[in-house]
């Protein structure tokens, strides 16, 4: 579902994991069907400039305040299921998944608003629409979560191998940040720009979690999706890419590199993960971790501010930006925000140098 470089569906579980789980559960056909259906939607959205999109929702939300709606797909492939909650309703749904995504989306909105004065995903008050209990086949579990360009979809997972994909706040933050990226740098979902797209989603997903839990950079574990897989494993590690899981009976070993010398060269095809976007995101992820660790304190205060400023600068971070361009952009923003020769500049430089990008 999450592949195809021209019109991607941004899923949290990367193809190198979902393919293995799909093989085990015999659900590859499910992946192919959903991939094409949502790919067609992305084609239509790609033809519309993000700033000019109009999002139709059930209510008439205010443009300057948080507005959320939650839909229940009832274990079906409905793109818009039953509306079970909308902003302003005091009584929450009984569903644990619904409560998680309501709270999670609120945390994401507040993070961007309070730290960066951003007005929702599009910075224009966009409603946050979320669909829970989504499936491609009502008889089989859906083991992923994804942003489709307009709204969120969450699967309940595969009971034997994963928990619900609403479980972790950083997952919700990651996927909604793909929306933010769409409206800012709009990084092409292929090769190094695609890996940067994935990395930015990881960076702000983890920052949202750290901000909510008030966890300083040096005390955080830097694990993405640490409660999704059954057992002690996470989906990714920003501190040590390639170590999130080892010898897993289903997924094997985490294949993410941390350094440019270990860059994974794959074809820019569906089968090649659009040039390895989910593999090589480990490199800029690690550069951010090093930067945040060097700066100490709260990662969202300086490192996060630098990365966000770079994301907003379309001249520095173009759609086809590579890792070197990202390094240049973040170094320039660090200088602008904190001064030439500042500790922030030194920390950013160390991050990109130690990963071998510069």
User: How many domains?
Assistant: 2
- The largest beta-sheet arranges its strands as 1-5-6-4-2-3
Q: Give, in order, the helices and strands.
A: EHHEEHEEEHHEEHHHHH
Number of DSSP strand runs: 8
Characterization of the model:
The protein is an alpha/beta fold and 358 residues long. The protein has 2 domains: 10-183, Elastase, domain 1 (Roll), CATH 3.10.170.10; 191-354, Neutral Protease, domain 2. The protein has 10 helices and 8 strands. The protein has helices at residues 15-25, 28-46, 96-116, 169-183, 191-213, 273-280, 282-295, 303-312, 323-338, 343-354, and strands at 10-11, 68-76, 82-86, 128-134, 145-147, 152-154, 223-224, 236-237. Strand 5 and strand 6 form a beta hairpin. The longest helix is centred in the middle third of the chain and has 23 residues, at 191-213. The radius of gyration is 19 Å and the shape is globular. Mean pLDDT is 90; it is low at 3-7, 42-49 and 51-58.
